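Q: What does the assembly look like in three dimensions?
Context provided by user:
Components: two
Sequences:
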Amino acid sequence: MTDKKPFYITTSIAYVNAAPHIGFAMESIEADAIARWMRKKERETFFLTGTDEHGVKIQKTANELGRDVKELCDENSNKFRNLRAILNLSNDDFIRTSDKENHWPGVRKIWHLMKTKGDIEKRKYEALYCYGCEAFFTEKDLDENGECPNHKRKPEVIAEENYFFNLSRYSDEIAELIETGKLRIIPDFRKTEILNLAKEGLHDVSFSRPAEKLPWGIPVPGDPSQTMYVWCDALTNYISGIGYGQTDDPLFQDFWEGGEVMHVIGKDILRFHAGVWIGMLLSAGIKIPDMIFVHGFLTSDGQKMSKSLGNVVDPIDEVETYGVDAVRYFLLREVPVGRDADYSKKRFEEMYQAHLANGLGNLSSRIHTLCLRNNVAPGYVLDEEKDGEFLRLIKDAAARLDSAMKEFVLHEALSAIFSLVEILDQKMTELKPWEMVKKEPEKGAHLLRNFLAAISWIADHLEPFLPGTAERMKKMFGVGTKSLGEPAMLFPRTEMLFGDK
RNA sequence: CGCGGGGUAGAGCAGUGGUAGCUCGCCAGGCUCAUAACCUGGAGGCCGUGGGUUCAAGUCCCACCCCCGCAACCA
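A: Here is the predicted structure of the complete assembly.
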């Protein structure tokens, strides 16, 4: 790891029209784990998240509720801001697209640069619009009768003048960036997917809407009759959030221009990030990000999550029930990076019980008790000659952990740590330290120092993934101090949590 | 139509051509330091279907079947 450039990581920004979704929680937690990992590797790291607040949808919701749209955005945005505490995220800042001071100048600046380049132009645009939905449709959205599926009537054809971004002219350049890996798409199969799309040619995109249709947004510079459409507004958060557009922008210089940049997003918006966003940056002459890390979607008990089915999982409820690290564990370990996965309560509880309560929790407990009873103190450093076996076990786990994290395979990384838990349980049974301390006290105590060192290693390396648990374990095992801490029930078994089963 | 992903034990997945593995669950033993935890063993798979290449195929090739995504703002 020679690359010690500053590291900048972002999540997508969440749209404020709905409550935080378990999928967004997963995205935030993945980004957080990577951010924490980088900090641990002593890289200067900046982690940004935030909310996307403009558009007709939230405006409509505000109207229906008879509320002021800005006020509603403030309220909803806070629900996302609060995830920092609830999910134990380490984001360094939180950007809001309604923030006129911090966000808007960057957006205006990039618009201006693109305009100057000749990539933004006014065009006549014909679109299908349903007044019932207050939304535009494409042919594909309509049902077999050519009608709006929600209102069962033919949408109107509206002609309007919009600004368009000439994305198509960047198709080849974008395809090449993806193909050569200058823009790295993780996982690989997403790269293939988006590369094919780019090779087919990207379409120009509508960059504005008439202000009377879209009043809640950023006015187009020099043409207040038009409001910016989502792309230029929302995507720009990644740079406005670190100062782009301000007179003085040291963070932007360090982390964007001089750093390594990773966007963490969902599979649904890859094409906008790999397409529109990269096109915008190319047009404006700004450096492009290095990596786009794409996660899949979660189903709920095998079914698509939807409000109508009522099976949407609320991350906040889950955290209240099981604790934040149990939720983090499930999302990081049980969801294969990049793939779709199922979030089922049954599976969640099985994993919780097996890996966290019976595995990590119980092992911590047995080591702590034995050390406490036999006056084994923390701080022992394993010795190459005397402790070769334990040293090797730890090194193996460390090697697996490093190589997994190098490729951002988070579930594999966590699995590397947890396999050491399993091995330590086996070693315990094999070496019977509780007997050895009776027969040969000094040898027994030394063995326990090995176990203590190993569990301390686990505590330390768990930090990016389960920061709260890592903290508690360090206290419990007195890491960095001279004596053991109080015993702790890290993960109570589910019957202790719920009192049955 | 096309593009992408997937189809391996009850569930979730790993498997780079060479005796089918992991986690969970289930069953039986063992142990007692520990959160009725832990350890060991076991049952359970014609690896989507049909062809082909090969001494050898879950793994390569061809055809087909089934499931899931796929341009607007839904994580």
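Follow-up: DSSP finds 20 helices and 17 strands in chain A.
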